[in-house]
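User: Here's a protein and a ligand (S-adenosylmethionine). What would the complex look like?
Assistant: Let me lay out the input and then the predicted complex.
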Amino acid sequence: MDTSDATPEPIPEATPENPFRHLPVMLDEVLAALEPMPAGAFLDATVGGGGHAAALLDARPDCRLIGIDRDAEAIEAAGHRLAAFGERVHLVHAAFRDLSGVLAHVLGGDPLVGFLFDLGVSSPQLDRSERGFSYREPGPLDMRMDRRQTRTAADLVNGSTESELAAILRTHADERHAGRIAAALVAARPVTDTRQLADLVRDAIPAPARRRGGHPAKRTFQALRIAVNDELAQLPGTLDMAIERLVTGGRGVVLAYHSGEDRIVKERFDQAATGGCTCPARLPCGCGAVSTARTLRRGARLPSDAEQARNPRAASARLRVLERTNPEKRP
Ligand SMILES: C[S@@+](CC[C@H](N)C(=O)[O-])C[C@H]1O[C@@H](n2cnc3c(N)ncnc32)[C@H](O)[C@@H]1O
C-alpha cells in the first residue's frame, strides 16, 4: 500500500455554497476517461452534490450538462454548487426509469457526447441519521433515496417473509449468515430504527464472524438499501439507452461500488461491444450481431491506495469506460 499520502482527508464541511459534503470518487480518472470527447451535451445520471459535474464543466467549457438524481436534497445541493455555470446546466429530480423521457424533453433528437453514472449512495445520505441509511447512527428505518416513494426499509423488514428477507441479504450482499439474520429480524418485529436493526444483526451472527470484515451490519444495510430503492432493476435498460444516445466518439463512464452493480455494467458494456455475438472467435460471425461500442481497457480500474486512504468510502469503487463507435458487423 502507498502510504505517502495516508492521512484521511476529512469530508469537506458543508457551506452555503456547498451544502452537500461528498468527495467525488476517482475524479482525475473520470476526467481522463472522458478525453477525447466531442463538444455537446453531457449526462450526469447521478449528479448528487455536483462534485464530478462541477469539475467536468470547468474542464470542458464547450459542454453543457444534464444532471438527474432521484434525491430531491441532492438536486437542491447541485443547484447551489453549479449555479455559476448558468445556462450550461439543466437539473431534473428524476430516477433512471424516467431518463429516456427527460432526455427526449431536454435534447429532442440530439445525441449525448458522454455520460457518467456514479452509482450507490452519497455521503450526505449516509451521514444524515434521519435518512436511516447508516448502521452507525440512530435513526428511523427509512433508506429511501426518493422520499416521494412510499415503501421504506421498515416496511420491507416488517412486511416480508423470512425467506424473502434471507433472499434479499444473499442476493444483494452475499451475506453468509442470511438465514440466521432473517430469522432474528422476523422474531423481533416490529423493527423500527437503525440502531435496533444493527444490534439484531450483530447478535444474530456467530461471535467469530463479528470480528471479521468490518461492521457486522454493513452487508445487511447495503442489501436492504438496494432492495428498498430497487437499485439494480433500473440499471441495465438505462445503461443501454444511454449508450444508444451517444454520438460516435462519445464516452460513457460508470463507477460501481459492489459486485452485483459492476457485473451489470460489465455485461451491458460487453453487449454493446460485441452486439451480443456468441460465435466462436476463430470463426467468421454467422449471427449478424452489430457492435456499437468498444470498451477501453480490460477489466475495471480501482482507486489508488492514496485515494482509498484519504476517502475510505471510495475503496470499493470500480471504474469502467466505453467509447461509442460506428455500428459494425464482425467479419
Ligand atoms: C455517489 S452519489 C453521486 C455523487 C456525485 N457524483 C458527486 O460528485 O457529488 C450517487 C447519487 O446517485 C443517486 N441515485 C442512485 N440511484 C439512482 C437512480 N436510480 N436514479 C437517479 N439517481 C440515483 C443517489 O440519490 C445519489 O445522490
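Summary: The domain at 135-228 is CATH 1.10.150.170 (DNA polymerase; domain 1).
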